[in-house]
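Quick start: what a row looks like.
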Amino acid sequence: MPDDTPPAPPLTVRQQLMQVLTGARYSARELAELMGVPERQIEEHLVHVVRSLAKDRTRRFLLEPSVCHDCGFVFRDRTRLTTPGRCPVCHSEGVAPPRFGIDPRTP
């Protein structure tokens, strides 16, 4: 007897993004290359992923902040998910992008 159940609908970009980020760390550029989506779209989707995970008691969004390559300044207080243009301390434009991930919450 053939199986008449319809195939599962394809995952949305945000659902795919959440799957890719679970247990891993990626920058927006790496995610864009991996998923075949422009980097700006990834950054926009990440904002919504953060909102979704804020309500989720089983998982949490992780943000590894940007770091200046020249002086080592860490952008701990930055709330935007994009890469800063330059370091506020040494004014270098050599800034590592933030990295994102999703991990299970520990009780």
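That is the whole record. The CA atoms of residues 24 and 101 lie 5 Å apart. The radius of gyration is 17 Å.
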